[in-house]
Every structure is written in C-alpha cells, then in structure tokens.
Amino acid sequence: LELFAQFCINMKLVKYLKAKDWDGFAYRYNGPAYKKRSYHTRLRRAHAKHSK
Which residue intervals define the domain N-acetylmuramidase in the entry (predicted)? Predict the structure, then answer.
C-alpha cells in the first residue's frame, strides 16, 4: 500500500483522487483504454460503498 501511495504522489495522481475525479485518475493510471475495463466506474462505486 505504501508503494502505491508513493507511486500516486510521484505521478501526481493524488489531486485526482482528492477531487474524486475518477475518470482523470483512471486515464492517467491505466491509459486511454481505461474505459474498456470500466476502471473509473469501479473506483466510483468502491468510493461510494466505503465512504459511508
């Protein structure tokens, strides 16, 4: 988990997570094909489920 957090910091992805910009994060993390795997949608659902 610490490595992933450091990766997000180094790649300047934290701002997308803080803004809940799942599309922006998924695009930068997985590349332009992120929508094919619905990564942004899964992030949105996971956040909604676990942030209650």
Answer: 1-50
